[in-house]
Here is the input.
Amino acid sequence: MNFLLALWEYDFLRRALLAALLSSVVCGVLGSYIVIRRGSYMVGAVSHSMLGGIGLARWCQVVCGLAWFTPILGAVLTTVLVSCLLSCLVGKGNAREDTVLSAIWTAGVALGLCFIAWIPGYAEDLNSYLFGNILLVGKGDLLVMLVLAAILLVASRLFHTRFLALCFQGEVLSLRGISPMWTGLVLNLLVGLAVVVLSQMVGIVMVLALLVLPAAAAARVSGRLSRMMVLGGVFCFLACFLGMFVSYTWNIPAGAVIILCSTAFYLLVALLARLLRKGARLFTDKPKQSQ
Here is the structure.
């Protein structure tokens, strides 16, 4: 109850709630494509490689005096570069996907640590980048999240049919004269932008779980993609709201609690779906046994 009253009193909680709403929309739409395509490992590679862009941005700000080169801009540029590399190397079949993703995953983290080590003065605090904090989202962060979320929704709407074909049967695109590699590039770019949006809340370490688990939970109870997107967004918002509530009440890191709530939702939905399937199977088998 104290948390609900605090929402009306404190601006930072209202900003956090709006950030949770924007992120839930992104999770519902992009997370569904990722679950269908089984591209969760790609999300992990993109998110961890962002540390390289963040470290480069901080180094340029401190050493080169480029104040405009913010960490979020470095993260966006990194996701664009990584998406292009994945589409060129994996999309054309020139390399194994798991090898490329592993290389990008580790190289991004290594580059980020090197750039941050080269920054003179006190050691840079990585906690805000690695683990995020939804309660510290500012007005500028909200504006960036709003713009990126709008781009993601518009692009997803325009390319929805192609994304469906790519996720289920990529050969259909080739038969229609559409390049699967370019379609995959667009989807990878959108996933990269989604990672940037969500990293503001839970950091680059845990963004994989927030983007995948709500949609995966929705997939267990829905057979249609449209319903899966809606349910995924609802599950994500509920996890964020409960995470904020627990974090504010018991002074626990918000990002960690949000991920725990997302995991709990997935496990609970998976368990209920399995029990319902067993119950339905028993109900249909009884008439056969009586005969």
